[in-house]
Amino acid sequence: MKRIDHTSQRYGRLQVLSRAANAGKHVRWDCLCDCGERPTVSSTHLSSGHTTSCGCVRNEVTAARNHAGATHGMWETPEFQAWQSMLKRCYLKSNKRYADYGGRGIDVCKEWRDSFESFYAHIGPRPSAKHSLDRIRNAEGYKPGNIRWATESEQNNNRRSNVTAKVNGQELTAAQISQQYGLGHGTVVYRIKTGKSAAEIVAPSTRLSRRHDRNHIAQF
Q1: Eight-state DSSP code of residue 151
Q2: Which residues pair with 148 in a beta bridge?
Q3: Rg from Cα positions in the chain
Q4: 70: alpha, beta or left, given left = phi > 0 and alpha = psi -120 to 50?
Q5: 20 to 30 A Cα–Cα from 112, which one of 6, 64, 94, 190?
Q6: Which one, of 52, 1, 37, 42, lies nearest residue 19 by Cα?
Q7: Residues 29-60: pLDDT tens digits?
């Protein structure tokens, strides 16, 4: 029988990388699963469709079945969906947002990883459809005291890429300063990054200062 070369072929979640050592008479292949695991699978199991992942699909199905039988009865609620999405961002390497969460060390405290009920007891019901789960301190993970329900604008003001300055005793983002003082966002960012004082940051723009800012904002 002619041997099939599975190299570079995809079977479900598995991408075949290269030939592995035989197990007796069984030809085997080293594979990469979408979740990041690297299982070794027999040629027969690949060709027959018997194996299409490292086992993560089975685990997900089992978890879904367990959730469906859970006593909290909330598996179709936005709170439960937020909990699931939180776990996927932090631990599922195939998730499109993993790089910004699990990939940079953001994790979920063990109590909440193991229990939706504990998570819900802390966060409570979502206030409205405009709210979603947000971390208060972006450098830290999902844990008691560091999560909240927040609107999109509140989350935008909390992004780790935001430029901030202390004005009248308050730490404000460039977007908040721009809105409160009627200034261009680029102008505020330029003033903060060039070390202007709080008074200079919120000073009304004159025709001369607007021209000067426009000539230098691009570099920021």
Answers
A1: -
A2: 134
A3: 26
A4: beta
A5: 94
A6: 42
A7: 999 998 888 999 999 998 888 888 888 877 77
